[in-house]
Design a protein that fits this description.
Strand order of the largest sheet: 13-14-15-16-17-18-19-20
CATH class of the largest domain: Alpha Beta
Distance between the termini: 60 Å
CATH superfamily of the largest domain: 2-enoyl-CoA Hydratase, Chain A, domain 1
Number of helices: 13
CATH topology of the largest domain: 2-enoyl-CoA Hydratase, Chain A, domain 1
Helix content: 25-40%
Strand content: 25-35%
């Protein structure tokens, strides 16, 4: 059921940006002959371009049988018909890339593609839309322990997005490890995967993908995509890379994950991906409709395999919602094992991340047992919280990281550790990141 739900989400998430409703579109006359013409044109496009020619017969039979049975008869809205055709195509083919859309404006523009003014207008509109989405790049930040975090939700063409991609990578270029969040990424231009992957190597010539696609009359065109010899700014060839995936990670996002995993360059954390490996091309249908047709096949140069229908399996399986914290902890632990700087103890951050993933619950009884005076400090229990008061000057909330370890709200220099002997509190310790400790006896 979860996979079915994810599949439905993918249909609409990939195509929704092109399904623009307007009053004018709702007023169109849409009859049974129109529907038959759309189905016939669609199956003709599949016969000429679809990557699985042996499957076209079953698809054609399914759509025509549905038409003859009257399953499309009560559908009066074009977008509803597009959605029904999409789900029927996926049901019979098991190919998640199929999407039928109703967008007369796109079709009209596409049919005038040879017109330079029309092409200029289309490119300007595409650029404007891409800018509104920041070319897919949603978030870039530095997590505790100098771990970079990058979230982007689709792969824009580097022809218009390379400057944004490069500036994002430069912001993250001094981190000690990088987490790339593709959990909500539905794919796009594989060239963006090539562009970003090239930042993770230096002086290497490696193929990322090899592929072919069908042109008109099934003319087969073969290509390869390699690491780029040059990218703007600093590369990150020496740091560990973690890629986060979910059941809706799709297409080009899967290919970047799969390729770098086979090259042993990344650790994938999260859920198995959706399993859509084929490149697509959008073909015009009658009456303002269009269809995304998988028209080629991509293979990994190392395995000579793909993940179509299977998905990409993570190296570390966990729930999608736990992937950020899980990868953050993995990165900290690996860096800590290599770290020789006692002044920068990376284990210091692990309790914070673990507590973010699952909050520590300390009972009222235990918190009250910590009350008391400890030198110039006093611990007080008020309003279901424990507070640290120093010399009657400053009072700070204590946030539990463990049952007996607390973070001071607003203070990063030290933490408070409760010291007990035979289940009796005897004092507290100030614990510093460099390993120093100061003990204060309970009065």
């Amino acid at each position: 059921m979860k996979n079915l739900f994810a599949l439905v989400l993918l249909i609409f998430s990939i195509g929704s940006y092109a399904q623009k409703e307007s009053a004018a579109k709702e007023d169109i006359t849409f009859n049974e002959l129109d529907k038959k013409q759309i189905i016939d044109s669609l199956t003709k496009q599949l016969q000429e371009f679809y990557i699985r020619p042996n499957a076209v017969g079953n698809i054609k039979k399914k759509l025509n049988d549905n038409y003859k049975k009257g399953l499309y008869k009560d559908i009066i809205k074009p977008n509803d018909f597009a959605g029904k055709l999409s789900s029927d195509l996926i049901e019979v083919s098991k190919d998640l890339h199929f999407t039928v859309r109703y967008d007369p404006e796109w079709v009209e523009s596409h049919l005038k593609k040879g017109d330079k003014e029309v092409e200029k207008k289309i490119k300007a509109e595409e650029l404007s839309e891409a800018k509104k989405k920041n070319f897919g790049f949603q978030q870039a930040q530095i997590l505790e322990g100098n771990i970079g975090y990058l979230k982007f939700d689709y792969f824009e063409d580097p022809a218009i997005a390379s400057e944004t991609a490069a500036s994002t990578m430069q912001f993250l270029s001094s981190t000690d490890a990088l987490i790339i969040d593709l959990r909500q990424n539905n794919g796009g231009a594989m060239e963006m995967g090539q562009f970003l992957s090239s930042y993770f190597y230096s002086g290497k010539e490696l193929p990322l993908y090899k592929y072919y696609y069908n042109e008109k009359n099934r003319k087969k065109i073969e290509r390869e995509m390699w690491l780029l010899p040059s990218v703007p700014g600093k590369r990150m060839e020496d740091i560990d890379i973690y890629i986060l995936t979910s059941s809706v990670t799709f297409s080009a996002a899967e290919w970047m994950s799969y390729s770098l995993q086979n090259l042993k360059r990344v650790t994938i954390v999260g859920e198995k991906t959706a399993g859509g490996a084929h490149p697509i091309d959008r073909k015009v249908l009658p009456h303002g409709f269009s269809v995304n047709v998988p028209f080629g096949e991509v293979k990994d140069p190392i395995t000579n395999l793909d993940f179509e229908g299977k998905g990409v399996m993570p190296d570390v399986l966990c729930k999608s919602e736990e992937a950020v914290n899980t990868s953050h902890i993995l990165a900290l632990q690996k860096l800590s094992a290599k770290n020789k700087d006692v002044l920068n103890n990376l284990d210091w951050y692990i309790p914070i991340v673990k507590n973010r993933q699952k909050n520590v619950n300390v009972t009222t009884e235990i918190l009250k047992s910590y009350e008391g005076k400890y030198g110039k400090a006093e611990l007080k229990y008020e309003n279901n919280n424990l507070y640290y008061n120093w010399n009657n000057i400053a009072t700070l909330l204590l946030k539990p990281l463990e049952q007996d370890l607390f973070l001071l709200d607003g203070i990063n220099d030290f933490r408070i550790k409760i010291v007990s002997e035979n289940n009796v509190v005897t004092g507290i310790k100030r614990i510093y990141q460099d390993g120093q400790e100061r003990f204060y006896k309970k009065e």
